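User: Please fill in residues for this 457-position structure.
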């Protein structure tokens, strides 16, 4: 992509108008409701990811490397309580969330947004005691709408497939500029800094060798917040060419008209979205025919290229388990669900799951590959022990606009992930406070009351 002139272009003006001046009353009620539901869904994953190894390491590292001597630039880490810098708090929460692959995503970006947006709000809101619920939801919406278009613009104008941190850092900047009361020029410089330093890491490298790097979103949050503070102190970096280059302009034309916030997908399972359609195909057949694992002789999965590249063996780590395909399919066949316990600890060496995996084969199918990334499709064939051959037909992964989960299902998912870590009372209190944010009289402080205290072991 060719860098434009240093003078702001109309596309930037459109983005600044939207990020800094669009109030809750200028956003459809349905969009704000979607923001509240995505916030709740993300918070369930933030909580559930806290005790996991990657989350523990991320928070400890934040205390070692990302502290602050200035109370105005520090914040408590989510569900931990220790105080670090603004950038450190956002980094820690985003990193731990990124390592439990159950958070929302947006198909056209091939990545994730809430993973940085909710930690950014939770971090900055600590300095905004009077923040209203609708204004908090408007800030969330700004983060999603800016991040989503930045991701689409990036992938449309460069050759590689980058992790989400490469572009969701720009949504962090937009939120921070809004919530910290910064002007247009400061925001513009921060966007340029963040885009320049955003982690343009290769997603398929992580798919090939899964680790705790995941989708780069911890660094996206760190870079975005750091860039805002740098710009506030006079550091320059504009322009962000995914926003200001002429070839990027088409990807921003519908900002404030088409609401990406309402088109995110919710994950029923805490694994890579690419494996969901395969699991859903198995689920559909098993539910329709009343099958258990004992009834199944063979399973064959057809899916798109990227899904077929997911890990095929018994995963030795949680990171690999979340970027696998036969393993989560087998876990669902065995237990009718996929929870944190199935992708961590003893679940990684479950003998029943390991045995079921020997019955599963996977292949790439061109018709599914051509529909990626707009869709994540698969079809499944199950051969039963009594000789029946049962087919799912083409299945799109559940949870997005094509096959949405109901509001009650999303709330139930949140409770399923949050209660084991937070306890019934705290999880329910957080749930109720988040869902009340659409009320004009609500305050984010009611949510904050449940966010920062350490989890009781």
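Assistant: Residues filled in for all 457 positions:
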């Amino acid at each position: 992509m060719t860098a434009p002139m240093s003078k702001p272009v109309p596309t930037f003006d459109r983005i600044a108008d939207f990020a800094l001046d669009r109030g809750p009353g200028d956003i459809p009620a349905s969009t704000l409701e979607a923001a509240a539901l995505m916030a709740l869904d993300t918070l369930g994953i933030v909580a559930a990811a806290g005790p996991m190894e990657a989350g523990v390491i991320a928070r400890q590292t934040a205390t070692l490397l990302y502290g602050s001597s200035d109370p105005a630039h520090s914040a408590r880490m989510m569900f931990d309580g220790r105080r670090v810098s603004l950038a450190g708090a956002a980094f820690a929460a985003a990193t731990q969330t990124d390592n439990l692959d159950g958070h929302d995503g947006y198909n056209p970006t091939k990545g994730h947004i809430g993973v940085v947006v909710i930690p950014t709000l939770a971090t900055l809101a600590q300095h905004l005691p009077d923040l209203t619920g609708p204004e908090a939801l408007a800030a969330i919406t700004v983060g999603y709408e800016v991040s989503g278009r930045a991701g689409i613009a990036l992938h449309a104008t460069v050759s590689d497939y980058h992790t989400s941190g490469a572009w969701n850092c720009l949504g962090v900047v937009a939120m921070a500029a809004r919530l910290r009361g910064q002007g247009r020029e400061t925001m513009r410089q921060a966007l340029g800094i963040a885009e320049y330093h955003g982690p343009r890491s290769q997603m398929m490298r992580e798919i090939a060798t899964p680790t705790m790097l995941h989708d780069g979103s911890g660094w996206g949050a760190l870079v975005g917040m750091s860039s805002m503070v740098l710009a506030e102190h006079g550091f320059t970096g504009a322009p962000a060419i995914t926003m200001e280059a002429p070839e990027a302009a088409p990807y921003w034309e519908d900002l404030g008209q088409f609401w990406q916030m309402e088109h995110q997908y919710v994950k029923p399972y805490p694994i890579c979205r690419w494996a969901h359609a395969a699991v859903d195909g198995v689920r559909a057949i098993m539910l329709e025919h009343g099958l258990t694992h004992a009834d199944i002789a063979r399973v064959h999965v057809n899916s798109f290229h990227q899904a077929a590249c997911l890990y095929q063996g018994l995963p030795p780590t949680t990171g690999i388990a979340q970027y696998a395909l036969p393993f989560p399919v087998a876990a669902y066949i065995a237990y009718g669900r996929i929870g944190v316990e199935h992708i961590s600890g003893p679940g990684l060496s479950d003998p029943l799951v390991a045995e079921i995996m020997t019955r599963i084969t996977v292949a790439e199918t061109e018709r599914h590959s051509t529909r990626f990334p707009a869709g994540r499709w698969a079809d499944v064939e199950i051969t039963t022990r009594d000789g029946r051959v049962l087919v799912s037909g083409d299945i799109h992964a559940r949870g997005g606009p094509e096959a949405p989960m109901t509001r009650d299902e999303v709330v139930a998912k949140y409770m399923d992930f949050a209660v084991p870590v937070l306890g019934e009372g705290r999880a329910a209190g957080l749930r109720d406070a988040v869902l009340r944010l659409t009320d004009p009289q609500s305050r984010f402080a009611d949510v904050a009351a449940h966010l920062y205290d350490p989890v009781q072991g």
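For context: DSSP finds 20 helices and seven strands in the chain.
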